UniProtKB/TrEMBL annotation:
<dbReference type="GO" id="GO:0032259">
    <property type="term" value="P:methylation"/>
</dbReference>
<dbReference type="Pfam" id="PF01596">
    <property type="entry name" value="Methyltransf_3"/>
</dbReference>
<keyword id="KW-0489">Methyltransferase</keyword>
<dbReference type="InterPro" id="IPR050362">
    <property type="entry name" value="Cation-dep_OMT"/>
</dbReference>
<dbReference type="GO" id="GO:0008171">
    <property type="term" value="F:O-methyltransferase activity"/>
</dbReference>
<keyword id="KW-0808">Transferase</keyword>
<dbReference type="GO" id="GO:0008757">
    <property type="term" value="F:S-adenosylmethionine-dependent methyltransferase activity"/>
</dbReference>
<comment type="similarity">
    <text>Belongs to the class I-like SAM-binding methyltransferase superfamily. Cation-dependent O-methyltransferase family.</text>
</comment>
<protein>
    <recommendedName>
        <fullName>O-methyltransferase domain-containing protein</fullName>
    </recommendedName>
</protein>
<dbReference type="InterPro" id="IPR002935">
    <property type="entry name" value="SAM_O-MeTrfase"/>
</dbReference>
<keyword id="KW-0949">S-adenosyl-L-methionine</keyword>
<dbReference type="InterPro" id="IPR029063">
    <property type="entry name" value="SAM-dependent_MTases_sf"/>
</dbReference>
Length: 239
């Protein structure tokens, strides 16, 4: 694709945010744990804008409930905001493992999880590629959510496919990136928002190329327009 995708006008972004807020006012209940986590992430200087929006957090919770998940793996903890949403959908005997490269982030996440009453989550600190490689397949996961460094998306997907059960769900965030992934002229971009270099685009493009030839999964991209702007996530099921 040769055409250049222009920046989304501010008034359009404001419409996205206003619509998201309006729907959330009807569909999302107040939650002290999540509110605390959001503020605690900001207070500790973490990149709070990289946490999932509340509407997507609720979606993750609904997926957990819909498939009856008991074991969930998350790649990319940050401050644990999405982790709380996922944990809220798990039964008391469920298990949630979340991977984070930063000990600082992990500390904040553990504090947030404790405050929210999520007792069945473990935060593992280290390089996610190495940690994933060490996880066994004997106890497969029902759901795997990936929201971490985009250049590693191809490997994260292959590991997720190895670790998820048959008919289990893999969700990979930030695969649209304001339309830049589909923009053929977007090869060496300047620093823009949370997508600072071409590796974030290239990682998703490589992932999509893998999926095109992969007969072991069915997948689709679900584009989103919300308080964080225009993006989307990949939803895949292992056959």
């Amino acid at each position: 694709m040769a055409s250049t995708i222009a920046e989304i006008p501010r008034e359009v972004l404001e419409t996205f945010a206003r619509s998201d807020e309006y729907h959330n006012s009807f569909l999302l209940r107040p939650d002290e744990g999540l509110e605390y986590a959001s503020e605690h992430i900001k207070e500790n200087g973490l990149m709070h804008h990289m946490s999932v929006p509340a509407s997507q957090g609720e979606f993750l919770k609904l997926v957990v409930l819909a498939i009856g998940a008991k074991r969930v793996l998350e790649v990319g903890t940050l401050g644990g905001y999405s982790t709380i949403w996922i944990g809220q959908g798990l039964p008391e005997d469920g298990e949630l493992i979340t991977l984070e490269i930063s000990e600082v982030n992990a500390k904040v996440a553990r504090e947030n999880l404790a405050k929210a009453g999520i007792r069945n989550a473990r935060v593992l600190v280290g390089n996610a590629n190495e940690t994933l490689a060490g996880l066994p397949t004997e106890e497969p996961f029902d759901l795997i959510f990936v929201d971490a460094d985009k250049q590693s998306y191809p490997n994260y997907f292959l590991e997720a496919k190895r670790l998820v059960r048959k008919h289990g769900v893999i969700i990979i965030d930030n695969v649209v990136q304001k339309g830049r992934v589909a923009d053929g002229s977007f090869a060496r971009p300047p620093a823009i928002g949370v997508y600072p270099n071409d590796s974030t685009v290239d990682g998703v493009r490589t992932l999509l190329k893998l999926l095109k030839e992969d007969k072991e999964v069915e997948a689709t991209t679900i584009a989103t327009a919300n308080e964080k702007g225009y993006d989307g996530f990949l939803y895949a099921i292992k056959l």
